[in-house]
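Table S7 (text form). Paired inputs.
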Amino acid sequence: MHLIIVEDLEIDREVLANLILDDCSRQEERADLSFYSSGEDFLAHYRPKSCDGLLLDILLGGMNGIEAARKVRESELYLPVIFTTSERDYAVESFDVKPTDYLVKPLQQEKVARCMERLRE
């Protein structure tokens, strides 16, 4: 499973990556992770059909995660998009891009595991 994580804070990238890798290890599954620290950098390198899921922080410097997801939706209507954020205030707006999940920081293992199960489906 190849997942892309777009997160501007290194500590949050590490926490999310470790939670995903722990879950995949429990499922005896391998995860390949790619990382970007901004929406602009992600979109400059993104190619449709290049991943199985996209995990986007909403509060990025510059372009926010919802804006980046809108750009992705122009070419990929069904790619699973999971938002990660410390702000609950964007939940309603995020539904414009039909996310698979909305994870509120601090991230919890059981919620990431539930999200990973949705990705596997």
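Next pair, protein 2 of 2.
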Amino acid sequence: MKTMQFEEEKLNSGFVYLPGEGKTITVAGENITFKAVSEDTKGSWTLMEFVVPPHFSGPPPHWHQKETEGFYVLSGTLTVQIEARTMSAPSGSFALIPPGVIHTFANHADEPVAFLSILSPGGFEEFVEELAAMMQRETTWPPTDMSQYKALNAKYGMFSPPSPSR
């Protein structure tokens, strides 16, 4: 258990998370570990480590109003869709998605995929936490009434296609 003193020291002098450290939550079968959150970076960016199970279909295609998002694949092969292009991104690959660009990701392989997701500006971890809580409250996913999900997406500036730039 980390103490308040650790939190104050972390903000003032930096910190190191060793493998497996950081707050981890599960969303739709993905394990997401927060490595740096908006509070750590004075709102500049968020860094999350994803471990995605085999045959994970991923989130619906979407676009972010303000975040630039990057994916760096640590292990496995991530399927990345950016607009109409779909690519297999093996370990060592990097994808960059500017605001307004429709995208999604999936794992079509038989092995888990691990990747880092960095978003700027920071704060997207709050969406992930609220989504996890929403999914725990629902008896089925996707829920029959998608209005709460759509409202959560809109709250964090994430929208379904088409994007306004297209």
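Residues 124-137 form the longest helix (14 residues).
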